[in-house]
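Workshop exercise sheet. Pairs work together: one partner reads the sequence aloud, the other fills in the structure field after running the prediction. Swap roles for the next sheet.
Pair: D.N. / O.F.
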Amino acid sequence: MNRMRRVFAIAVIAAFCIAAALLHNEIKDFLYVHPWWQSFIAAISAIGGPILAWFDLQHSREANRLRAEMNDLSAEANSQRTRANELQEEHNKSIAETAKLQGKIADLTKELDTERNKHLQQIAANTQRPLSEAEINAGILRKHIGQRAAVSESHGDWGGGAFIAEVNVNNILTLFVPASFNNSQAYAQTVRCDKLHIVETPKDGCALQVAIIERYGAHTNYGEARTWDERNVKPTHAGIQRGENVFHAMYRKPGSPKMRRVYVYASADGSPNYTMVAAEDEQEIFSWHGSKLDIERKVAVVNVEWVDQGYQHIGGGASGNLNMFIRK
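Structure field:
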């Protein structure tokens, strides 16, 4: 509408200007002869004004209508925005209430778990089986694995004691006696933990005292093992060249065909050392190389052990200056 008004106004003015330019003289003469045109020309502005006012009125109505529609849309938008804010606020409140509820649930769950654990501990304490004597002794012995114990039985003490080698899951103790001057061969003896008594008081350099009531099975020989870790290592002979035989002894157990022998050889290189060999049915059991005093002690220990095992010395002799303590 505004555009139509501008076009009409421009056309009127343009036509008026063109006519005035082309008919300047004629208009001047005509107006001079007919002075009423002066009144008409003066009336043009009065006539054009209402026309333009009418067009402007139409434009204003349209603008007012559009403005009213815009105001309605703005009001609707504000209403929707207010509703959206209300919904967002409700959503935030719902989230806060949910978080609060989850916190309460977590606290209740924690309280229930704590209470349940207390009941479970109480139930476990009420239903726990008391430890047996074997389990109690096994627990004490496991604290002393690798240490030496003073061991005794009804018929006497173990000279030098024994090492606590291991305690298995069945509560069976293994005592290990290494090879030394006091024992020609290493051996291990098993004992059930409910068939012994323990005194946690050191004695003779040992960490504790063990009194065996009953052995569990026969002992196991481990040759010349000096430690528990060496128990499965097959003894190897010194390989030293042997000189002349300076001593021998024979042993036999009544009712058994097995024969045991001890041989002592001088050194082939003339040194003051000797080599002792123990054999059973002509098969070497172990050998020992050392000084004269070492060999004399070793022969005496082997003699005592074999006699205790039921063997009897049935012969032998010496051709050198070794002082062997052989019981007849």
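Discussion prompt: The mean pLDDT is 81. What would you look at next?
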